[in-house]
Every structure is written in C-alpha cells, then in structure tokens.
C-alpha cells in the first residue's frame, strides 16, 4: 500500500504551492507520486465548478443558486468517483497520493454554511482516511492578502467572515480527526515546506 497525504486550509493558505513542492520532494527521492485535487477534473467536478464555484461572488459566499444540501451531495458524488477510480487504485499500486483538498473541506465549508456536521460526516463515511492531513493554518487577513488579485470586489467583508468561520471549523476538526496536523502557514514558502517534510519523514519511517 502507498501513502495518502491531503492538504487542507482556507482559500489562499498555500495548498497548491505546497502540494507541488512536496510532489517534487517525493519524485526526487524516486517515489511514484500522483498529485490530485478536489473538486476533480471529472464530469462531477466540472458540474461543481459550473453550479457552485463559478457562481462568481455568490459561489464563494452562498454556494450559488443550488441548495446547500445539493451542494454537499455534489461534492460527495465527485469524491466517490475520486476515491474509487483514482485514490484507491493508486494506493493499491504502492503510489504516493497527494490531494489538494478532500472531505475535510466539505466539512469545514459546508458546516460554515449551516449544514449539520454529523450529517456531513455520515455522508462522507465512504471516503478512506488519509495517512496524513496537513492543515495549513494562517490568519484570514493574510490569506486574503495573498489572493488579493482575485475578483471579489465589494464582497470582501462577507467573504472575510466566511473564511474566518471556515478556519475555526478546520481547527475544531483537529479534535475529531487525529490524522490532521496543523502547520503554521504564515511563514515563508520554504519554511512551511520544511515543516511539512518533517511530518512526512515521520510518516515514512
Ligand atoms: N508561505 C507563503 N508566503 C507568501 N505567499 C505565499 C505563501 N505560500 C503561497 N503563497 C502565495 O499565495 C498565493 C496563494 O497560494 P496558493 O495558490 O498555493 O493557495 P491555495 O491554498 O492553493 O489557494 P486556493 O484554496 O484558492 O486554491 C499564491 O500567489 C502563492 O504564490
Ligand atoms: Mg489552490
């Protein structure tokens, strides 16, 4: 069996940056690595982008025009495909799988939208637990600065409040899911990367 590593954190926390660095780190060591993400690039992922994320401003804040429950179900459907078609086969083949977001995102974000946490956990029970979940934690003020270029216009305050709630939710999830390890993502890219490598090395020994 391979190893399954997940990156989580609020928008702009540095997930994509660190996923790529860790992928390189593994490749240099000769590991077979699969880098993946949620929502995926499958038809389900595309549907999510169309109905939820590309709803523009409303998408980020309210999940666009579909109900919160429908949104949660779409994410779960996309994840079911992801787990069964990609993650499980790759792990079985002994590969390292690194995913940019996983079911913890559904819990943190959809809980912030007001859905019941227990229902969300039940809904995602099929999703195999990773060996390690790296939670990139940093103040929302800093993450918003990093993604300053993204077009959120006059919705800044509402997005700020939602991101704050999501950050708090992630930190609460640590108590429930011991595989989540918190990394201080406020540091520079290289420092964050070396903290991650330390966690990963412990996992490999
Ligand atoms: N440690 C860091 N210090 C300063 N800037 C950073 C750091 N890590 C990443 N960045 C920059 O912050 C921005 C957001 O980073 P990145 O895209 O990796 O975040 P993300 O968590 O993947 O965001 P999203 O959830 O929106 O996909 C990028 O411009 C990136 O270069
Ligand atoms: Mg990203």
Topology:
Elements (H helix, E strand, L loop, with lengths): L2 E6 L6 H14 L4 E5 L5 H9 L5 H6 L5 H25 L3 E5 L2 H10 L4 H7 L8 E6 L2 H7 L9 H21 L3 E5 L4 H16 L1
Parallel strand pairs: 1-3, 1-4, 2-3, 4-5
Helix pairs in contact: 1-9, 2-4, 5-8
Bound molecules: adenosine-5'-triphosphate and magnesium ion (MG).
Task: Describe the protein in words.
This protein has 205 residues and is α/β, with parallel strands linked by helices. It has one domain: Rossmann fold (3-Layer(aba) Sandwich), CATH 3.40.50.300. The protein is built from nine helices and five strands. A five-stranded parallel sheet has the order 2-3-1-4-5, sandwiched between helices. The longest helix has 25 residues. The two termini are 14 Å apart. About 3% of the residues have low confidence. Adenosine-5'-triphosphate binds next to helix 1 and helix 9. The site of adenosine-5'-triphosphate has 13 residues, from helix 1 and helix 9.
